Amino acid sequence: MGQTECRGCSTSDPATDTVKVSIGATLLADADAGKASSKHQAADVQPGPVLCQEDEESACREAEELSLREEQQEQERRRQREEERHRLDEEQRRWQRERAEAQAREEEEERHRLGSEAELSQRLAAEAAARRAEEERQRTAEEKARKEAKKKVEVFLKARGFKTMVMPRTTCFKATYPLHVAVQENSADVVSAFLLCGADKKVKNSSDKTPLEVAQKLNNKGSHQAVIAALA
């Protein structure tokens, strides 16, 4: 296709035509453009330091919070250690107190035991002495009673014609023992004296009767009850 010529510009001569350029306006425009570019660049760069400052402040706050938490944790650890020390001290004091009380109880029990043993020893000694005294008294009383019984038996035997208390007196083919005679005479004290001197209360006379059987036969409404009691 052919080129279409612009009729409005057909009278111009490319060789002789000139263009007027204002250098001052161009430089001013460039300066204005530079200033605008600088403003845009400054606007783009300006937030950088603000963000950095915020980051530093946040880091400082975090560091302060961390330091505060660490300090609180350290205070809690110190508190726990102090409580543990107090607890151990209290347990130690309680243990010492209980040990002192236990030792005091043991000493008191030992003193009481020793006192009880001493009292028991004294009581046993006193009881033994009392028994010995009672035994001596009884022995003396029995010895005295035997002497009196022996004397009473000797008087009875001599008065009734008996040689000894174990030998019978024989008359008309009848054997009579001293103990049977004492029963017939209803003499309870003489019967007791014979028994105390060792007379045999089971011996039988010629009628084949023991002293007790003779006393029971002679007993009339309790007349020989004392003799029966002595022979029982």
Would you summarize the structure shown here?
The protein has helices at residues 23-45, 47-160, 178-184, 188-196, 211-218, 225-231; strands at 169-171, 174-176. The protein is mainly α and 232 residues long. Helix 3 packs parallel to helix 5.
Per-chain topology:
Blueprint: H1 23-45, H2 47-160, E1 169-171, E2 174-176, H3 178-184, H4 188-196, H5 211-218, H6 225-231
Antiparallel strand pairs: 1-2
Rounded to an integer in angstroms, the radius of gyration calculated over CA atoms is: 74 Å
Order of strands across the widest beta sheet?
A: 1-2
Shape: rod-shaped
Strand content: under 5%
> Which structural class do you get from the secondary structure elements?
mainly alpha
Question: Got a strand count?
Answer: 2
Q: Any low-confidence stretches, pLDDT <50, length ≥5?
A: 1-10
Number of helices, where a helix is a run of at least 4 consecutive DSSP H or I residues: 6
Query: Order of helices and strands, N to C?
Result: HHEEHHHH
Mean pLDDT: 82
N→C terminal distance? 186 Å
Biggest β-sheet strands, sense, barrel: 2 strands, antiparallel
How much helicity do the residues have? over 70%
Can you describe this structure?
A two-stranded antiparallel ribbon has the order 1-2. The protein has helices at residues 23-45, 47-160, 178-184, 188-196, 211-218, 225-231, and strands at 169-171, 174-176. The longest helix has 114 residues, at 47-160. Helix 3 (178-184) packs parallel to helix 5 (211-218) and helix 5 (211-218) runs antiparallel to helix 6. It is rod-shaped and about 165 Å long. Strand 1 and strand 2 (174-176) form a beta hairpin. 72% of the residues lie in helices and 3% in strands. It has 232 residues and is an all-alpha fold. Mean pLDDT is 82; it is low at 1-10.
